[in-house]
UniProtKB/TrEMBL annotation:
Protein name listed in UniProt: Oxysterol-binding protein
Gene Ontology molecular-function annotations: cholesterol binding
Family: Belongs to the OSBP family.
Signal peptide boundaries: none
SMART domains: PH
Species of provenance: Myripristis murdjan
GO CC term (a single one): perinuclear endoplasmic reticulum
Gene name of this polypeptide: OSBP2
Length: 735
């Protein structure tokens, strides 16, 4: 280590006054390898060691503090002192060994006193804003001193009463005496009693004076400390308000800047470079060239379409794909179009984080302030927002055109996430959710939470319009400091009744950015491979991650649909938050090499045709958690649903109504009830000397899939029949 500045000044410490626990003086503190040791002013008081750059800084700026009650004191050599506490370490150096020994002695004494005070503290809960450990130690020490003084006063009072009574007896005896000799002895005794009385009275007066001086001194000190804390709090509030105003002005300026707004994704915040200097080494960047597609698309004009009459577009080849059935023209049931506005509750992050100290984060009950009033089962059901794509695909004669629509459906499920940064409620074990749209759209959907650790949900949808969809999704997440990666595990199966085409695909990774600081925004990245296991047709979709340096449109999705032989037939392009288009490939050829030396394929296509377009959000969506039209109806009350349906969950219902405090209380009650049920189930199993096999779902059972080879939960039937009979006697009481 460098010893720069060692001889720049004296490190003489101010000797403490008798009976004082304050020690001050200059020491050298190690800063870094560039600056080495730097001269700092250290103050030891009330079990705390604080340091400042200069003595003048003591009035306004403290550079650091260590609580000696939990600190470890060590000496490296003749002049060095090492203090470590809670992951923080100070390397200090005195000018001489004598000075080092004075500091070590003072530190050890202060540490012992701080430990005694900490051990003597009561375990009573504090006020709304509890004092720090050192403040409580100081208060407790002062109170003990005051109590000691009160005990002295009480003892003096007892002595005064005792000696006063003896004096009265002596005086009474003096009056009845006639013998001069005895009178002299009694007079001597009276004088002795009077002397004792005078001494005791003086001691009492001195004790009272000490008590009053001590009370007055500490009263002034507490007033100064209180006034300082009030001023600091006011200053902090003003600083935060000023920062909030600066943030709003920067955000407005950013939105009004035409160059930036054209290259930055909606809903994301592009941080300024000067604000992220300390985070540059952790920031993830994606090279724009790496995300460029492995092919080049050249769109032919309409003239070329007349030259290739056999290569018509998706809508031209199979008009039956666009035919509407009579059921779609039937009048629909009127459902709600709004929910109560989201309350503007402020969230005290520290009140949550302080409960996480020393505990597993997975077991910390998070308040509903981070949630939206929908469960994960309902979010899973939102995949059906664009179910009409599957209705259209069921009527397609061409499996390749059908694949295009299935691919568009797989992308459409992400369109509702672009502004949805709040997390859904974690379903309770055995919780279900049904969405019965048989009369309106011809399908019925059922979800059930089949596992709690790890959380897993099974989903089954059957449509009268020619398709069945099922999936089991387990959510895995990784917190990486600045962002949270959410990885859905499990395959999605889709089968069309008439053709028997069976499609399988998996979801991509969702990333929530700016977890700690900044405005939350969501990105989707990764690849999806959709396989038709009957015809072996494939579709490769690529979700490009957002990059500051890419010139591509944000949230871009590209894909190629190929037959079993690997020949490409359609190009898919668009964004996962807006639309997907398909273009028929007319001709393909090998082009030049890209920046990485890889040869790219050039596809000549017809003009693209729209496959899917996102519905606009309802009016006032920004105050309704950015819910889509379907999401607004998911928690609407329905008659005859199962007793475990998410619509009946009380904490979720209270949150939707804006009663968040009650929702938090109810959420904790439900979670504790679920834990108690699990403990009871495990205890009964152990008592029977049987192996604990876990929870058995009510409507789903595990089966091995012949295509993927995986064992997952599939619908075993019975739910809709029970709903028809209104027989829910088999349902557990989870709410």
């Amino acid at each position: 280590m460098s010893e720069q500045g060692k001889g720049s000044a004296s490190t003489s410490a101010a000797a403490p006054a008798p009976g004082s626990d304050t020690y001050k003086g200059w020491l050298f503190k190690w800063t870094n390898y560039l600056k080495g040791y730097q001269r700092r002013w250290f103050v030891l008081s009330n079990g705390l060691l604080s340091y400042y750059r200069t003595q003048a800084e003591m009035a306004h700026t403290c550079r650091g503090t260590i609580n000696l009650a939990t600190a470890h004191i060590d000496t490296e050599d003749a002049c060095n002192i090492v203090l470590s506490s809670g992951g923080r370490t100070y390397h200090l150096k005195a000018s001489t060994e004598v000075e080092r020994q004075r500091w070590v002695t003072a530190l050890e004494l202060a540490k012992a006193k701080a430990i005694r005070m900490m051990n003597d503290q009561s375990d009573d809960s504090g006020d709304e804003e509890p004092a720090s450990q050192s403040d409580r130690s100081e208060i407790q020490g002062t109170l003990k001193t005051l109590v000691s003084k009160l005990d002295d006063l009480s003892t003096c009072n007892d002595l005064i009463a005792k000696h006063g009574a003896a004096l009265q007896r002596s005086l009474s005896e003096l009056e009845g005496l006639r013998v001069p000799v005895e009178g002299g002895e009694k007079i001597k005794a009276v004088n002795e009693r009077a002397t004792l009385f005078r001494i005791t009275s003086n001691a009492m007066i001195n004790a009272c004076r000490d008590f009053l001086d001590l009370a007055e001194t500490h009263s002034r000190r507490w007033q100064r400390a209180l006034q300082y804390e009030r001023e600091q709090r006011t200053h902090l509030e003003e600083t935060i308000e000023q920062l909030a105003k600066q943030h709003n002005s920067l955000e407005r300026a950013w939105r009004e800047a035409p160059v930036l707004s054209a290259s930055t994704p909606k809903g994301s915040e592009r941080p300024l470079k000067e604000e992220a200097s300390d985070e540059d080494e952790d920031t993830e960047y994606f090279d724009a060239m790496e995300d460029s597609p492995a092919f080049i698309t050249v769109t032919l004009k309409d003239l070329h379409a007349h030259c290739y009459p056999h290569t018509s577009t998706l809508s031209q080849v199979s008009p039956s794909c666009n035919d509407l059935s009579g059921k779609e023209l039937q009048p629909r049931r009127q459902r709600r179009t709004h929910i109560p506005d989201k309350p503007n509750y402020s969230l005290n992050l520290w009140s949550i984080m302080k409960n996480c100290i020393g505990k597993e984060l997975s077991k910390i009950p998070m308040p509903v302030n981070f949630n939206e009033p929908l469960s994960m089962l309902q979010r899973l059901t939102e995949d059906l927002e664009y179910h009409e794509l599957l209705d259209k695909a069921a009527r397609c004669d061409s499996s390749l055109e059908q694949m295009c629509l299935v691919a568009a459906f797989s992308v459409s499920s992400y369109s509702t996430t672009v502004y949805r940064t709040a997390k859904p409620f974690n379903p309770l074990l055995g919780e279900t959710y049904e969405l019965d749209r048989l009369e309106e759209f011809g399908y019925r959907s059922l979800c059930e939470q089949v596992s709690h650790h790890p959380p897993a949900a099974a989903h089954h949808v059957i449509s009268q319009r020619g398709w069945t969809l099922w999936q089991e999704i387990t959510i895995a997440s990784k917190f990486r400091g600045k962002y949270l990666s959410i990885m859905p595990l499990g395959a999605i199966h889709l089968q069309f009744h008439s053709s028997g085409n069976h499609y399988v695909w998996r979801k991509v990774t969702s990333t929530v950015h700016n977890i700690i600081v900044g405005k939350l925004w969501i990105d989707q990245s990764g690849e999806i491979e959709i396989v038709n296991h009957r015809t072996k047709d494939t579709c490769q979709l690529k979700f490009s991650p957002y990059s500051y340096f890419s010139r591509e449109v944000p949230r871009k999705v590209t894909g190629v649909v190929a037959d079993s032989g690997g020949q490409a037939h359609y190009i898919l392009s668009g964004t996962w938050d807006d639309k997907i288009e398909s273009a028929k490939i007319i001709q393909s050829s090998r082009g030049g090499s890209g920046s990485e030396g890889k040869q790219k394929t050039v596809y000549q296509t017809l003009s693209p045709k729209l496959l899917w377009k996102k519905y606009p959000l309802p009016e006032n969506a920004e105050n309704m958690y950015y819910f889509s039209a379907l999401a607004l109806t998911l928690n609407e009350q329905e008659d005859g649903v199962g007793l475990t349906d998410s619509r009946l969950r009380p904490d979720q219902r209270l949150m939707e109504a804006g009663r968040w405090d009650e929702a938090n209380t109810e959420k904790q009650r439900l979670e504790e009830k679920q834990r108690a049920v699990r403990r009871r189930r495990e205890g009964q199993t152990v008592g029977c000397k049987l192996e604990y096999e876990g929870y058995q779902p009510l409507w789903f059972h595990q089966r091995r899939n012949s295509i993927t080879g995986e064992t997952n939960f599939v619908y075993k039937g019975g739910y809709w029949e029970s709903k028809e009979r209104q027989d829910w006697s088999m349902c557990p009481e989870i709410f």
